[in-house]
Specification:
Belongs to the heme-copper respiratory oxidase family. It comes from Neolewinella antarctica. The chain has 617 residues and is mainly alpha-helical. The chain contains 18 helices and 8 strands. Helix 4 runs antiparallel to helix 18, helix 6 packs antiparallel against helix 7 and helix 10 packs parallel to helix 13.
């Protein structure tokens, strides 16, 4: 009696990989005992790039909640200084001061500590590690056709250095003298003199140690990303066939590798000033009426070293979001990305120019006006490749059959934020106008929209789009759309009014404005901004609920390629294991953006070019 063997249907891409793919001998020799793991090695000390991506993402989300809550606390102090914050005393303890009338308010030092921690957490732990660490880890091996990163061990260590860095920073919140309160840029002398203020002591030491550990994490990850892209691309995957997210992650890693060590050198000199008695950053300073016993340093040196990292850091944050948005827009517009090579060259141009514009943060520091002119010119020039990308995104959308899912909405929202936030940078890049606008809320509005909110929009687009690849389920689309509309309206409601109060000269970093009659008529606007910030944060909690609920209860992924996309990550099995492809590695036959070609909606990268077909790349 014959017995029938029932097998699952083989998809077109699976069949092509079996036929045209090539065997790297990995499957035969390494698919067995090497990946039989227990709970600890699978979920905690994992060397699978996909699990490490999830670790970066969830850790970044936790930090985003903490940093966001900090901003709400100091916004409530700013927006409603007459209201009591005594209800926060059980959480914040001595950092809430209660006056004789029972009115509680933030202690000024702790207000500045919250501003400092908020900036540090969001810039480094969320928008650098959370964004680049997540999607570089998730997508580089999958999109280039590799089993894993070049060094899974270094990849694991990069996450754990990031985690330990965060724990060191978090521990500083519990010091009796409080965390560092000198601003996320840590300018001397507040950062270089332990006795300058309470937070300049142990809080500053822990802040510095934390960021040095963070730099180690960035360097370990960056070396891995660069090596993987250069050495582990699958057969047929030339550099000009790479999807745009990979170009963005690759260039971002190079920027980080060149710029973050400079920040470490700045911290090293600062620690010598703090503990050894050198004077790299200190000169002519009086403490309690007594002159500091060493002179000759310059705080401007620190500014140069910090912003040599600080401005490339802007693009370390935004370039991965740009790459993600390029992919999501093309997939959901059902059109090839417009001007692929122009997009790649614009990424390279942005990377190069990001290293020669740092002093536009220092126009008011006393630098030579002729030097300022140099930085003005290149600051305006860097807008050109950014404008090329904006034009190409709009051209990709134009005439497309757009699917308005949460991922595409956030990608379109990114373009809106990048345009509106980027245009205000033209004003700040002008050294003459900057005299009026420097250190006002105009600056806060500009960089929060273009670097903060826009980067978050890119991250959200990526999470919604690749969530099925990470967890085998979909996030709730209705909740995702509520999240989008609440976030984009709320973000504009928070930051657009700041442009106006900034042009009126309202300074940033002030604890309260009741001593300034000039700014009294902005009370209503300050209240509006604070209420909008609280509501907008609520919509982010909606995302968090949707995210964790969908991990276990979301609609299951049942098809290999739910978006009908072309790139290699959608050729892996639905339940993808460590090693990504169970048999042969895919062989790439074409570029990543063959949408709407020859009457076909999409053509996977693994499909050979027909005899009568002219390849784009």
């Amino acid at each position: 009696m014959a017995s029938a063997i029932i097998t699952a249907p083989v998809s077109r891409s699976e069949g092509l990989i079996q036929e045209l793919g090539y065997d790297d001998h990995f499957h035969d020799h390494h698919h067995g005992d090497k990946y039989q793991s227990n709970f600890v090695s699978h979920y905690i000390f994992s060397m699978d790039h996909k699990m490490i991506a999830k670790q970066f993402l969830i850790t970044g989300m936790m930090w985003a909640i903490i940093g966001g809550l900090m901003s709400l606390v100091f916004r409530m102090q700013l927006g409603f200084p007459e209201e009591s914050l005594a209800w926060l005393q059980p959480v914040l303890g001595k950092w809430i001061a209660i006056n004789g009338d029972g009115i509680g308010s933030l202690v000024p030092d702790f207000y500045y500590a919250l501003v400092t921690m908020h900036g540090t957490i969001l810039v480094f732990f969320v928008l650098t590690a959370g964004l680049s660490g997540t999607f570089s880890n998730l997508l580089i091996p999958l999109m280039i056709g590799a089993r894993d990163m070049a060094s899974p061990l270094l990849n694991m260590l990069s996450y754990w250095f990031f985690f330990i860095s965060g724990m060191v920073m978090f521990s500083s919140l519990f010091l009796s003298t409080g965390p560092f309160a000198g601003g996320w840029v840590a300018y001397p002398p507040l950062s270089a003199l332990p006795q300058a203020m309470d937070g300049s002591g142990a809080g500053m030491t822990l802040w510095t140690i934390s960021l040095v550990l963070f730099v180690v994490s960035v360097l370990l990850g960056g070396i891995n990303y660069i090596t993987t892209v250069l050495n582990l691309r699958t057969k047929g995957m030339s550099m000009w066939r790479l999807p745009l997210p990979i170009w963005a992650f690759f260039v971002t890693a190079i920027i980080g590798l060149l710029s973050f060590p400079v920040l470490t050198s700045a911290f090293f000199l600062m620690m010598l000033d703090r503990g050894v008695g050198t004077s790299f950053y200190l000169s002519d300073i009086y403490i309690g009426g007594a002159a500091l016993d060493h002179v000759g340093g310059s705080p401007i040196l620190y500014q140069h070293l910090f912003w040599f990292l600080g401005h490339p850091e802007v693009y370390i944050i935004i370039l991965p979001a740009m790459g993600i948005v390029s992919e999501v827009l093309s997939v959901n517009a059902r059109k090839p990305i417009f001007g692929y090579k122009a997009m790649v060259f614009s990424i390279l141009a942005i990377a190069f120019l990001s290293f020669i514009v740092w002093a536009h943060h220092m126009f008011m520091s006393g630098v030579n006006p002729f030097i300022s002119n140099f930085f003005v010119i290149f600051t305006l020039i860097i807008a050109v490749p950014s404008a090329v990308k904006v034009f190409n995104w709009i051209a990709t959308l134009y005439g497309g059959n757009i699917r308005f899912n949460p991922a595409s909405l956030f990608a379109i929202g990114f373009v809106s934020m990048f345009i509106s936030g980027g245009l205000t940078g033209i004003w700040l890049g002008n050294s003459t106008l900057d005299i009026q606008l420097h250190d006002t809320y105009f600056v806060v509005a500009h960089f929060h929209i273009v670097m903060g909110v826009a980067a978050f929009f890119g991250m959200y687009a990526g999470v919604y789009h690749w969530f099925p690849k990470m967890y085998g389920r979909f996030m709730n689309e209705t909740l995702g759309k509520f999240h989008f509309w609440g976030t984009i309206i709320g973000a504009y409601a928070v930051f657009w009014p700041m442009h106006y109060i900034g042009m009126a000269g309202v300074p940033r970093r002030y604890y309260k404005f009741d001593a300034f009659a000039t700014f009294g008529h902005f009370d209503g606007l300050n209240k509006f901004i604070t209420i909008a910030a609280i509501i907008t944060f609520g919509f982010q909690l909606l995302f968090v609920i949707n995210f964790f609920y969908s991990i276990w209860k979301g609609r299951k992924l049942t098809t290999q390629n739910p978006y009908n996309a072309n790139t290699l990550e959608w050729t892996t099995p639905v339940d993808v294991g460590h090693g990504n492809w169970p048999g042969k590695l895919p062989s790439v036959q074409r570029w990543a953006y063959d949408y709407g070609k020859d009457g076909r909606e999409f053509i996977s990268q693994v499909e050979p070019v027909g005899e009568d077909e002219s390849p784009v790349h």
